[in-house]
Structures are given as C-alpha cells and as structure tokens.
Amino acid sequence: MQIQHNLHGGRTIVANHNGARVVTMGRHGGYVQRSYVTRGGHSYYSRTYYYHGAYRTGIYRGYYWGGRPYYGYYPAFYYHPVYYGWAYNPWPAPVYYGWGWGGAPWYGYYGGYFAPYPVYPSAAFWLTDYLIAANLQAAYAAQVEINGSLGPPASDQLLASMGAVPAAANSNAVALSPEVKRAIAEEVKAQLAAEQSQAAKAGSSAGQQSNASGNSNEVPPALDPARRTFVVANDLSVVAAGAECALTAGDVLTRLTDTPDADNNVNVSVSASKKTDCAAGKQVAVSVDDLQEMQNHFREQLASGMGELAKKQGKDGLPKAPDTGTVAGDVPEPPPDKTAAKTLEDQEKAADQTESEVKQEASSSGGS
User: Is 350 exposed, middle or buried, given 0-12, 13-18 or 19+ CB atoms closer than 10 A?
Assistant: First the structure.
C-alpha cells in the first residue's frame, strides 16, 4: 500500500491485491481496476469509478515498457468520422456561446485563473474551455470536501471591496494565457484527428488488427514525443528548486524530457498554475504514471465533451453537426463492478489503521 498526502489536505492510496489495482482519492472517490479481455496479444482492463454513490466504467489498455506496467484509456465506441472532422475544422463563422457560469462558486473562485474564449472559431476551442472548466470544477469540489465551503481568494475579496471588476470578466487578467490555452487546443485537435482515423477502422477486421499491432514493450502514450502539453487531473505534491509545492486540477504542464530517470520521473515545466500552486515557469519532476493518468483523464473528458457537443449542436448558437452517430469499438464497455464501493471503503479503513500504527510506533521510538 502506497499512501501519499498532498499539500492541500487530500490523500491518495494505491494498492494491488487479489489481482485488482485499487486507487482511492478521498473518502468518496476512487476506482477499482481488474483484468478484462485480451485481444491481439494486448491486455485490456476494466475500471469502475465510484464517487458519491455513482458508478462509471472505462476500458484501459495495458502497456509494459521499461519493466513497468502502464494503462492507457481506450474508447468503447467512436463517432462517425465526419463528426470528428466537423469538430476539428473551422466553423463557417465564429460562434458566441454563453456557458452560464457567472453565478457558479468555482468560477468566481478561479476567476483570476481562467476565462472562456469570447467566441469559438471551431469546436476544438469550445472543447478546450469545456475541459478546463471540468478540471476546475473538480478541483473546487475536492477542496470543498476537504475544507468545507470556500470563499473567493483574499485578493478577489479586496478587489470587490474596492469596487473593481472581477478578474473573470477580463480575459487579459487571467493566469491561463492565450498561448497556453492554444497549446491545449492543439492537443485537442491532435486527439480528434487520431480518433477520426481510428473511427474509420472501428468495427472492421482491419481496425482490430491495427489496434492490436505493436509489441509488448510499447512506449505508453504519455511519452509520445508528439504530445507535450498535459492538464493536471488530481492533486500532486512535487519539488521545485528544492521546495515542495502543489499541482492541482486545471494546472498545465509541458513535458521537457522523453526518457524517465531511475525513479521513473520526467522533467516538466509548469506552464500555468493557480496562486497557491507551483509557480509558472518552475521545472519539476513528475512520474510517468501521473502523466499517463493526466493523458487518460484528458481523453475521458474529451469523450464527455464530444457527447455534450453532440447533444447541443444546432442549439444556443452552435452550428449543426453533420452526423453524430456512433460505432462500437473492438473492445466492449465493461459492466460496473458493484463491489467497488466496499473495496474502496475497506482500503480507506486499512490506510487509517496503517497510519495510526505508524504514528504510534514513531511516538514510542521518540519516547524511548
């Protein structure tokens, strides 16, 4: 069992037992991963996420590289290729879209960090704001769960008392710069193009053969030289210039090195961060496992965003999409593991007991 505490009070617990990988991230969240199917020499795993009474599932393909296992998100279905092309290419005219976030607590809290685009030249930019907002909502919810309700940052309270315009209303004032957002948008476009290509092969024997190609020592997607920009998905504690600092959901990293060191870390630069996190421009070491989970989360959120866009296309000023139909992938979506909630709860209790025993041993050693 590995237990990690982050600088904002959260705790992550990772354990492997009885053939399952169990990861808990707080009292009410986490996932249980189990072996699922083998296709074309590759192993696929099912994940059951559990959070506040709700289950969701996902497929993950196994990678074994450098003597370590990795798990990459694998879609259970694809949209028809023309929908990816519509999302990737420019729309006939820029679109104004009102998100309705004005009264949301998370939006006010992170007003100095993020502001949506005033108009959207294509769906890729709409999806970029969707992804960033989803991460910031998750970051806010995690802090509320740990610390209770959060008011606006002290600097924003001061501005409000002076009658100043909140930072969220002024895109020039936010820390998440247009350059960093464009880098995220380019990652969105690259992933849309990749999935369009995969969608054209989905369901065919050629597609299955293509997806199954490669060897058992394949580089995980997080180390793809063409992918450099990562959006932090969960709280991490890292070291910058000898001092520990935090990374939280919605911070943005740029990977600098492709080869992990002896501790399985690669160097990244902090491209954008919130006021209480590692400062932008700092270089830190992040494990490949953590980067892979960021990439997995990115793909999951992109799939969710494409689903929302399919529902909203042709409404609220958005242009109509050509074809939002889907085709099943070659690995079917697994059913949820209804024992996940109990498994996660048991792991939390085991971690509590382990930490209590360690503290007692430390106290006894210190007093002897």
Answer: middle
Tell me the C-alpha distance between 117 and 64, whole Å: 40
Q: What is the DSSP letter of 250?
A: T
Quick: pLDDT tens for 29-68: 899 999 999 988 889 999 999 988 899 999 999 998 888 9
- Contact between 287 and 232 under an 8 Å Cβ cutoff? The reply is no
Which amino acid makes up residue 104?
A: A
Q: What is the 3-state secondary structure (H, E, C) of 261-310?
A: CCCCEEEEEEEECCCCCCCCCCEEEEEHHHHHHHHHHHHHHHHHHHHHHH
Dihedral angle sign, alpha carbons of residues 110, 114, 115, 120: negative
Q: Pull the structure tokens for residue 57.
A: 């599932």
Gap between the Cα atoms of 220 and 245, Å rounded: 27
Total Cβ atoms within 10 A of residue 32: 23
Tens digits of residue pLDDT in 328-350: 988 999 999 999 988 888 888 88
pLDDT given at position 171: 37
Whole-prediction pTM value? 0.85
